[in-house]
């Protein structure tokens, strides 16, 4: 069965512009919170294929989106490379021993050995593939990874950061070490995404959540080139799988965008008209409503209509410009999806 979301990723004509939301399987849904409570904690939920599959599918039925995105976390990759990961209440993800030297890096496993440890992710995908096929609808399944730079920031800083000073100190004072870290992570991510495809995902998205931490003149060297390397690897083997690149916060970098991928995710700080002007002839564009507009149905409608006016219902996928926030009312998320489908529906 042809999937509207996959067709849209390749720029094909669709009955309306499909829509999904980053973080759509999450804390704004009471049903998600019930499953998370059963799991005991976030990492347990990531490691339990039956529960991870359950929360992946919830937004399809509750909110009405056109694609499910695998429920997991970007940090399962460094965790399985050998870095002990904890999610601490009030602090978020924390690694007990950040990478500070080449010796630290050499202690981590890489390549096939690391990618093969993520069996719970592949088992979740296989379960979802079976469940989605049994439903007989045209909903797509998106797999994902963090970009090497975003993963490396956590691995070097040891946790989330507002300044990235430890990473950037390495970038400017020991770039060879940073490149060795990025290379090792990239090799794992290539195989991780390949195994996700083999398990049954329809689309790949690569998140560079911390792209804006790098100055424009260094962005390609330390982030984008590694993302392109992953895309090239996957496209050479799986040309039928669309690839979405989502670097957050880079309106100044649009002239640097290149590579063999299909969809460019536009974050909310980048004007959609600018992204269309710079990239719309080469890539399908995804996005880019400011997530906080979801607090107001009126503001949601106004933004959806404005984006539709810019994109004209062509070579576009509706989404937020980043993830949905935990206190957004479910009915507002449903309103967003209905409005996207209303304004773009072809007669």
UniProtKB/TrEMBL annotation:
Pathway: Porphyrin-containing compound metabolism; protoporphyrin-IX biosynthesis; coproporphyrinogen-III from 5-aminolevulinate: step 4/4. CDD domains: URO-D. It is found in: Cytoplasm. Its EC number is 4.1.1.37. InterPro entries: UROD/MetE-like_sf, Uroporphyrinogen_deCO2ase_HemE, Uroporphyrinogen_deCOase. It catalyses: uroporphyrinogen III + 4 H(+) = coproporphyrinogen III + 4 CO2. It is an enzyme of class 4 (lyase). Its main location: cytoplasm. The record marks 73 as: Transition state stabilizer. Gene3D superfamilies: 3.20.20.210. Keywords: Cytoplasm, Decarboxylase, Lyase, Porphyrin biosynthesis. One of its GO terms (biological process) is protoporphyrinogen IX biosynthetic process from glutamate. NCBIfam families: hemE (TIGR01464). Catalyzes the decarboxylation of four acetate groups of uroporphyrinogen-III to yield coproporphyrinogen-III. This is Uroporphyrinogen decarboxylase. It comes from Sulfuricurvum kujiense (strain ATCC BAA-921 / DSM 16994 / JCM 11577 / YK-1). The gene is hemE.
């Amino acid at each position: 069965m042809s999937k509207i979301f996959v067709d849209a990723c390749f720029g094909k004509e669709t009955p309306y512009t499909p829509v999904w939301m980053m973080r759509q399987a999450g804390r704004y849904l009471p049903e998600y919170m019930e499953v998370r409570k059963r799991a005991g904690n976030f990492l347990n939920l990531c490691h339990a294929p039956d529960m991870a599959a359950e929360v992946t599918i919830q937004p399809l039925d509750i909110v009405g989106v056109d694609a499910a995105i695998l429920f997991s976390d970007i940090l399962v990759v460094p965790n399985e490379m050998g870095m002990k990961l904890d999610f601490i209440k009030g602090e978020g993800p924390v690694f007990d021993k950040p990478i500070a030297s080449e010796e630290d890096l050499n202690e981590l496993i890489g390549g096939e050995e690391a990618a093969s440890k993520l069996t719970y992710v592949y088992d979740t995908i296989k379960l979802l593939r079976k469940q989605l096929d049994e439903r007989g609808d045209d909903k797509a399944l998106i797999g994902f990874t963090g970009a090497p730079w975003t993963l490396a920031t956590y691995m070097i800083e040891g946790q989330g950061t507002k300044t990235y000073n430890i990473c950037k100190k390495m970038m400017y004072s020991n770039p060879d070490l940073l490149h060795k870290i990025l290379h090792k992570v990239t090799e794992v991510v290539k195989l991780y995404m390949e195994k996700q495809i083999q398990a049954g995902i329809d689309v790949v998205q690569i998140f560079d959540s911390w792209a804006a931490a790098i100055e424009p003149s260094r962005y390609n060297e330390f982030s984008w080139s590694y993302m392109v390397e992953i895309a090239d690897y996957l496209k050479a083997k799986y040309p039928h799988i669309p690839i979405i690149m989502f670097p957050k916060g880079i309106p100044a970098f649009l002239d640097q965008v290149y590579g063999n991928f299909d969809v460019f995710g536009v974050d909310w700080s980048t004007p959609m008209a600018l992204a269309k002007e710079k990239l719309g002839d080469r890539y399908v564009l995804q996005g880019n409503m400011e997530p906080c507009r979801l607090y107001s149905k009126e503001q949601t409608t106004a933004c959806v209509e404005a984006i539709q006016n810019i994109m004209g219902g062509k070579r576009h996928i509706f989404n937020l410009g980043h993830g949905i926030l935990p206190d957004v009312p479910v009915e507002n998320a449903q309103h967003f999806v209905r409005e996207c489908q209303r304004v773009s529906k072809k007669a």
